[in-house]
């Protein structure tokens, strides 16, 4: 009779799985207006059909079959994918309030505990975002002050590159350090040398954590959080976080000891002033150490990764398309010469401006966006979407929308030029999202990035071309073959 016991155990297992599947569902099966989507497999959902390295590619293909709004299920986690310019704009801009929440992703909730800006929610998000924006402006973001810092850092970067004297160079580290120094100067009130061991370690920790967040381990964790203890990537990322938090704790204490409320010199100083003000009140506030380390981490990462990645793409694309590089250099030589560029030069340099925008469009740095969530039950373009549903506004589909771009899959600066060669803005230019929870990198990464002068630009290209058979010399990132 042992076989009867095995059958009963199997039946109980199946019933348990069915219960979990039903429990994890956010959809009301009686609703007739659900978005369409591919059939799911028990436990795995639609995971088995996804390109795990480039899931946005699979989503774009699915949109051709199911339309611009469709649903997916990854394990027990359900989501709605929005594709194409018109659909994404309608959600994030025209109906921004309904799509204004940040989705609760298990791994990021586990990592940030709901603090900071990028993955926080509700009032904490509002308070920290408001403080970050106002304080960044106080320390020069979007003003002449930050432009001066960028110009100074650009000079250091050029001198560093010149020291290689034509030898092969891995641009990744020094470019990341140069870009990071801009936000670091605001956060900590100082800059670091490119060879500073502490600085290099910080850059490595952030870069490594970003790479780890894209691994299969983390995807599995998001689908089945109870498997957390079995996943190596999560453990490595948490160890990195612990090391980072130790550094930030030391910085917190150092700035607290030296704090002069009448002479605030950095973002940290401003945070600490608010921290002291809250301690004088009896009610619990938001300016505590947990939010401090999360906000600083958010701004450090957002102010480094996307901008440095974009600039490395720019260097690669100029190598790939020397005829475009030549036009940029000619415009720089004509309008700027050998001096450092300024913001006002941008109006006189439409082609260079167009190239910078096209680099961001073509590079497609954040293809799947950071996940949003609905703040209410909503009927969107005829489909019912419940409150709290995870929303994936697929930016890659916007940046490659054939109805918006003449040559969506080619590097074509003319996308941003009119018939007379003047720069034109494009509404479908959404490299970092749109709406109320616009990607944090937009807060700290200005489009007014420094142009390379003709002489310095040629030196960079010569150094890189001197070893162009070594992919590491160019850059190590997964989208290299896209060019």
Structural features:
483 residues; mainly alpha; five-stranded mixed beta sheet; two-stranded antiparallel ribbon; 19 helices; 7 strands; Cyt_P450_E_grp-I_CYP2D-like; endoplasmic reticulum; metal-binding; oxidoreductase activity, acting on paired donors, with incorporation or reduction of molecular oxygen, reduced flavin or flavoprotein as one donor, and incorporation of one atom of oxygen; microsome
Record the SSE blueprint.
Layout: H1 2-23, H2 55-66, E1 69-74, E2 77-82, H3 85-94, E3 101-102, H4 106-112, H5 122-138, H6 144-162, H7 171-187, H8 197-212, H9 216-223, H10 232-257, H11 267-279, H12 289-302, H13 305-320, H14 322-335, H15 350-363, E4 372-373, E5 378-380, E6 383-385, E7 390-393, H16 395-399, H17 440-444, H18 454-465, H19 471-474
Parallel strand pairs: 2-7
Antiparallel strand pairs: 1-2, 3-4, 4-7, 5-6
Helix pairs in contact: 6-7, 7-12, 7-13, 8-10, 10-12, 13-14, 13-15
């Amino acid at each position: 009779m042992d076989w009867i016991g095995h059958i009963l155990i199997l039946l109980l297992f199946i019933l348990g799985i069915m219960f979990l599947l039903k429990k994890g569902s956010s959809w009301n099966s009686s609703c007739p207006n659900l978005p369409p989507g591919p059939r799911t497999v028990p436990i795995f959902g639609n995971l088995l059909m996804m390109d795990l390295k480039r899931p946005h590619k699979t989503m774009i293909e699915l949109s051709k079959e199911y339309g611009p709004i469709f649903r997916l299920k990854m394990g027990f986690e359900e989501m709605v994918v929005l594709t194409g310019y018109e659909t994404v704009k309608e959600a994030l801009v025209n109906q921004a309030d309904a799509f204004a929440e940040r989705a609760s992703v298990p791994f990021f909730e586990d990592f940030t505990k709901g603090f900071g800006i990028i993955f926080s929610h509700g009032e904490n998000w509002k308070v920290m975002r408001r403080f970050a924006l106002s304080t960044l402006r106080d320390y020069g973001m979007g003003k002449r002050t930050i432009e001066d810092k960028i110009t100074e850092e650009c000079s250091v970067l050029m001198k560093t590159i010149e020291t290689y004297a034509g030898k092969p160079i891995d641009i990744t580290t020094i470019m990341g350090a140069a870009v990071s120094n801009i936000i670091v100067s605001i956060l900590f009130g100082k800059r670091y040398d490119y060879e500073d061991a502490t600085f290099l370690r910080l850059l490595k920790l952030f870069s490594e954590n970003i790479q780890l967040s894209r691994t299969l381990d983390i995807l599995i964790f998001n689908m089945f959080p109870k498997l957390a203890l079995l996943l190596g990537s999560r453990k490595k990322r948490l160890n990195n976080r612990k090391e980072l938090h130790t550094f930030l704790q030391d910085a917190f204490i150092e700035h607290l000891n030296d704090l002069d409320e009448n002479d605030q010199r950095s973002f940290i100083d401003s945070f600490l002033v608010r921290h002291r003000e809250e301690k004088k009140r009896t009610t619990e506030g938001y300016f505590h150490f947990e939010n401090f380390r999360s906000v600083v981490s958010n701004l450090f990462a957002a102010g480094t990764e996307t901008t440095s990645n974009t600039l490395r793409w720019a260097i690669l694309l100029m190598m790939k398309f020397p005829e475009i590089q030549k036009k940029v250099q000619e415009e720089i030589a004509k309008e700027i010469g050998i001096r450092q560029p300024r913001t006002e030069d941008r109006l006189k340099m439409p082609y260079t401006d167009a190239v910078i925008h096209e680099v961001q469009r073509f590079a497609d740095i954040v293809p799947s966006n950071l996940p949003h969530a609905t703040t209410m039950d909503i009927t969107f373009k005829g489909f019912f979407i419940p409150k709290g549903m995870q929303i994936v506004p697929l930016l890659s589909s916007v940046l490659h929308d054939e109805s918006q771009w003449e040559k969506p899959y080619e590097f074509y600066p003319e996308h941003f030029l009119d018939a007379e060669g003047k720069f034109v803005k494009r509404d479908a230019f959404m490299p970092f999202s749109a709406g109320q929870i616009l990607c944090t990198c937009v807060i700290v990464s200005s489009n007014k990035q420094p142009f390379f002068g003709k002489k310095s630009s040629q030196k960079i290209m010569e150094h890189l071309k001197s070893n162009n058979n070594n992919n590491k010399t160019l850059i190590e990132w997964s989208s290299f073959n896209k060019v």
